[in-house]
Every structure is written in C-alpha cells, then in structure tokens.
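We give its fold:
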Amino acid sequence: MSDSTLSRSQPGHSWAATLASGRGRLLPIRVVTTALVAAAVLLAGAVNESTVRYSLVIGTIYAIAVLGNNAINGVLGEINLAAGAYMATGAYVMAWMLNNEHGLLLSSLSVLAAGTVVGVLLAIPTVRLGGIFTALATFALAFAIPDLAIYLREFTGGDAGTPVPPVMIGDTFLDGSSMTMLVVVSAVFLIAAALTLWATGSRFGISLFLVGESSPAARVFGIRATIVKIGVWTWATVLGAVAGALYALTVGFLNPTIFVTFLSISLFVAGLIGGTRNVAGAWLGGLVVGTLPPNIQNFVPASASGVVFGLVLLAALMLGTGGLGGLIDRAVALLAERRRR
C-alpha cells in the first residue's frame, strides 16, 4: 500500500507513517525546509566575515558526508563509523589529480569513480555483517586510515602531507572562505539532497525501507536485498568522497591527522543531531559539528570549549530520536492535525 493510499484510508495513522519515512505528505515539507536552510546558510555567508563563511563551508561539506552516512543509518538501520575514511579517499584523489596537472572536471570525475569502486569493494563484505559487527568493522577502517595514508606516501605525501593546488571556476579562485565556495558546496548538497528525496519518495524508496526493516521479507517480495544494501553503502561512500574532495579544495593542504577516528565519530553524531531520515536535518547536523567548535572560543575560554561543545551535542541528542529535523517534522504534523480537527 502506498503512502497516499494510507493517508486516505487511515488519517490518524498517516502522519505516524510519514514521520517515520519522510514519504507521503511530509515530502514537500522537507523540500521546502531544505530550501529554507539553503537560503539561511547563503544569507549568513553573505552578511558575515570570512571566518564565519569558512566555517559554513566546512559545515556544509560535513553535511554532504552526513547525508550519505544517514542512508546507512536511517534506511538500513546499520552503524557506519567510516565516513571520515570515505572523505580521505576523495580528498587524496582530488589532491593527486590536481598535483599531476589534471583539470577540475577530470579530477572530479576521478573522485566519483574512486568513490564508486571503493564503495563497492567495501560494501560487498560489509553487508554480510550486521549490528555491532558492522560498527566494529567500519571503526577499524576509520582507525587505520591515518596509518594507511602514511604508508601510501607516494600518493598522499605521507606524514609530511600534500598541498592541494588552487583551482578556478571562470575567473574566480575557489578560496575556502569565499562566497563562491559556499555557493558551490551548497549546490552540491542540494543536488545530493534532491537525489535522496527522489529515491526515498519514489517506489524505489519502498524497497529501500523494506530491506532496512527486514531483508527476509524483502526477498519474499522479489527484492534483491544484498544488491540494495551494496547500492546504499556505495552511495554513502560516493558522497563521502565528494565531501572529501571539496574539503581538500577548501583547506588547501592535507595530512593524515585530518582524517582521524574522531572525524568519523563526529559525522555519525551529526546525523543523530539532525535526524537520520531528514535531509534538512543532515545539513543542520553538519553545521553544528562544523561551525560550533571554531566559534565557541569567541564566547568561552579555550580550555572550556570542549566541555561546552559536548554539552551542546548532548542537548541536541536529547531532543529525540529524530533530531533537529524530527522536531520540525513533528511540529508540521501537529499543526496539520490541529487544522484537520
């Protein structure tokens, strides 16, 4: 039964169903909410100084990786702690391509290709796991990335790091604190968000959620659950690689200390803060993780910034399982139910 049919036949239950999946009547609301977040981010970048704009760029880049990570967490119900490793893949591929004098277009296509190949290769063994074993396997991958980057020094520059040559779009350099970069990363997020909303809102989305709820039941209906899972994990890897490539262009220099385990854990927590099944929530979660740490010190001593940031994360997580995006969804549902009565 489709969400629209469910909405007509069971009005009391329809909002519960659409709040869980984001499909049905809530889908247009999420489109509007995402557009409003985009407008707010771009406006904040336009009216504030370069340091704020830089943190907005970083937060939006994190949001792209969070959006991919949420596909694993929110759709499949699995825990992925390797988002930082996916970012490292895209970042080093972008840096290597640019350092070898390849253009931005070819470098970007190489990032997409590398993300797809790495995603498939990692997904094939990972989808055979479940629960805590998936979390442990992806955590091990994230933990190994700094050492792997040092080992592959001919490709990554090792512990000395590697510069990322600046690139231009038209006559404008993609400087990390420029308005151009903020527009670029926002546009990339919106494209990924549109694809996500299309996938979850279409008939294919029913297959996705059915595989996440019960793979055996999905197979009864003729759905190839393993292929679907590999696709979701690969999608997450590709978005992580894209985020990493944008991060490389933003910071201009890479070294293994950037892609430590804490980055992967932060991206996972960002998904919980924003809501794992909410596109706008992914952006909000990325902004919280990306903008708060560098700006907290403007208000509290540096020694207390870690404690304040931890308290902010804890408060956000206590808002509920749907995160900040879930609060918006529930508010919309409540208003709709009151109007109906």
Observations:
- DSSP finds 16 helices and four strands in the chain.
